Hints:
The chain is α+β, with helices and mostly antiparallel strands and 218 residues long. It contains nine helices and eight strands.
Amino acid sequence: MSSPSTDVAWLFPGQGSQYVGMGRNLAEARAEVAELYRWADDLLGVPLSRLCFEGPEEELTRTINAQPALLTTSVAVLLALGGRLTDSGHLCLPECLPPPGLVAGHSLGEYTALVAAGVLTFPEALRLVRERGRLMGEARSGTMAAVIGLEEETLEEICRACADEGPLVIANYNCPGQYVLSGAAEAVNRAIEEARRRGARRVIPLKVSAAFHSPLMQ
């Protein structure tokens, strides 16, 4: 494999990007991907592959399931591109892709990045995110929403205006003009309406089970 390129970065998705059916076409096309999902099922003692391929969506969206499901599916994509896992679960990167100089992830995606970087094995990361999801799922309060097309200052004003409904913060600064709000459900719902009133191009309630990256996680 060639040397890592500082011009190439791999960014892995976090919770909220899961959907029923993810990874199924890859598992049907590639034996090594199907084996990865079977391995995940065995490691966790739960039918993770069935949740990914068939749902139900409500179960897949539960934090304790969504986090290992997304990690496994992200690794499945790398296997479908030509990567492989050793017997111990270390990832050998696809040779058809330029090796990345940087890896990163949105929240949960950081664990996938650590697998891609060789810091964690797949079994280590899978067990970690399952436990991480269990602990985060215990919060069981609040929600999140992505807001596109408003300035940071405007969203800060909205957060202050909705604070009487409960904790509300800008949790993710994805890029200029794209932010994620997180907090009490009443506060987030009110902020959604206010963001639309102030001209947001799009407001997307996220499929999450708690207010991640907010004071409610304490």
